[in-house]
Amino acid sequence: MLVGSLVEHPGSVIGRRARIREEHEMGFKKGPLGSAGEWLWGPDEMRWRRTFSGRPDQTASARDFATTLFAGSACVDVVEFVVSELTANTIRHTRTCEDGGWFGLELVYDDPAYIAVVDNGGRGIPAVKQPVDLLATSGRGLYLVSQLAYKMGIEGSPGLGHKVWVELDLDKPMGGSFGLEVSAAS
Ligand SMILES: Nc1ncnc2c1ncn2[C@@H]1O[C@H](COP(=O)(O)OP(=O)(O)O)[C@@H](O)[C@H]1O
Ligand SMILES: [Mg+2]
């Protein structure tokens, strides 16, 4: 049973303090609110929530929204891929695609970065399928997401809808993670 499960990948995650230290070393001047890093990485987290109507074209809008927020971060291509896969799943596999349906995107710009997508449920359970043929054109999306994630969780039920969330290392680009080109779902 994958609902409520957690996939964890150990790895170094650079924290806010290290990032602020880096900014100091780069010579950013201190202003009345502190340094640029202290202000940007201050104690309040940057959490964004947005809803989208359940149309296929809205997955691109969600992707653009997320990549704008993470622009300049090493993980922006991972963010793009994850948001594309998770939002496409809400359209393909849930009542989100029905009249009046919607999906929700939640982003936290932090280290680790947090991405969650909620859907309207109704048709089964998100499943990380393994083993998987990486060259397959379907059935590998959540597996690839799980491999890119520092942590991943699946919560909810077909009746209530699901939330699929991941934490990502802000400083880790997609690179050659899978030894092949992975193209995001449209
Ligand atoms: N949000 C969701 N709600 C319900 N079921 C889902 C959801 N996302 C994925 N699934 C289920 O998990 C399976 C694996 O998803 P995924 O790896 O993205 O492959 P694909 O979307 O290509 O089928 C899907 O085939 C579907 O049965
Ligand atoms: Mg999919």
Automatic annotation (TrEMBL):
The keyword Kinase is annotated on this UniProt entry: yes
GO molecular function: ATP binding; protein serine/threonine kinase activity
Pfam family, one: HATPase_c_2
Keywords of this entry: ATP-binding, Kinase, Nucleotide-binding, Serine/threonine-protein kinase, Transferase
Keyword Kinase: yes
Domain Histidine kinase/HSP90-like ATPase: residue ranges: 53-164
PANTHER family tied to this protein: ANTI-SIGMA-F FACTOR RSBW, ANTI-SIGMA-F FACTOR RSBW-RELATED
Name of the featured protein: ATP-binding protein
Taxonomic source organism: Actinomadura harenae
